[in-house]
Amino acid sequence: MSPQSSFAHSWFAQLNTRLRTANPYAVDAALATLVLFAVSLQWLFPDEGDDRLTWQGWLLGAATAVPLVWRRRAPFGTACAVSAATPAMAVYHAPPPDVVYGGLVVLYTMGAQGRPWQRRVMLAGWVLGVTLTMHHKEDTRPFEYAFHLMTILCAYALGMLTRVQRAYTAELEDRARRLERERAADTARATAQERARIARDMHDILAHAVSLMVVQAEAGPVVVRSDPARAEAAFDAIAGAGRDAMGQLRRILGVLKEEQRQGTSPQPGVTALPELLRQVGETTGLRVELSTSGEPCPLPPDTGIAVYRVVQEALTNTVKHAYASSATVRLDWTERELTLTVTDDGRGPSAPGDGGHGLIGIRERAAACGGTAEAGRGPDGGFRVVVRLPVAADRQAALG
Questions:
Q1: Which of 141, 223, 246, 270 is deepest in the core (most CB within 10 A)?
Q2: Domain Histidine kinase/HSP90-like ATPase spans what residues (predicted)?
Q3: pTM of the predicted model, to two decimals?
Q4: Is 270-400 a domain of CATH 3.30.565.10?
C-alpha cells in the first residue's frame, strides 16, 4: 500500500469513526443542508437552457431536502414526504430534478432502517414513479431511464448492505459479550473450586497436625515425672507434627504465590500412606493397618492427593472423636475404580447426619475427582468411610 493510499484509508477510517460517534440529529441536519444546496445549484448557477426557474420550483426542491432532518426519528414518514415532493417537482417542471438527491437518501435510509413491508413499498413506488415520470417527460433519452433507475437501485442496495453489516457487527459484539461473560464465569468457577480445594487441604493438614499435638500434649504431663523418656518422645512428636504441618502449608502457599522454588517436594499421594499410618501410630498409639487387593492402577495427581487427604481426615476424626484403639485402611483396586475404606473400632457416630467439615471435605474431594463418598456406622460397630474414585482411564466419563 502506497503512502498516499494509506493516508486516504486512515483519513476515511477517522471520518467514519467521527460520524458514528457524532450527534445523529446534527449529522442529519448537515445532510439535509447538503441536499438543499445540491438542489439549489440550478438557481445559484443558472444556465441558458429551456428549463425555467421559479420560486415555487425551489420550494418543491426544498421539500425534497428539509424532511431529511427527521429521517432517523421518522424514517417512513420522511420517505413519504420526499417521495411526494419529488414527482411534484418533476411535474411542475420549473425546473425538473436532474438528480433525485433526496430520493437517494430516503431509499438508503429505508434499506438500512425500514421494516420489510416499508422497504418493499418504497422501492416499488420509486421504480414505478421514475419510470412513469421519465415516460411522460419530453425528449427523454434511453440512457436517462437507466441512469435514474440504477441510481435509486444502488442507493437502496447500499442501505441493505449497511443493514447487513450492522446486524453482523451487532452479532459479533453480542458473541464477544457472551464469550466474555462465559470466560468470567469459568474464571470465577475455577477460582471457587481452587479456593475450596485449598481450604480442604489446609483443614486436613491443620486438623490432623493439631489433633496429634493435642493427644501428645495431654499425655506428656502425665508421664513427665514417671517416664521422662516417654514424655520427651511425646514432645518430639508434637514438634515433628508441627514441622510437617508447616512444610505442607508452605507448599500450599507456594502454589498460591505461583512460586517455583527448587527443592519443593510434591504433594503426597498413595505411596505416602504407609508413612502417614506409621506417624499416626507412633504419635497417638492407635494401631493402624493397611491392606491392599487387586492390581494398582495409575491415578491422576489430584486423585492421588485426594486419597491421601481422605485417609488423613478419616484418621484424624478417629483420633479426635472415636476413642478407638485400632483402625484399618483398605485399598481395593479394579480396572475401573479404586475403593478406599477406612474403619475403626470406636464408639461410632453419636447421631445421624452429614457430619462436620471434615466429612463434607471428604465428599467434596471425591466429587471433584469424579467419585463418591459414604460415611456412617460400620457393620461391626465403629465408624466407616468408603470412597470410590475412578482410575485414570474412566475419570473423564465419571466427571461427564
A1: 270
A2: 302-393
A3: 0.46
A4: yes
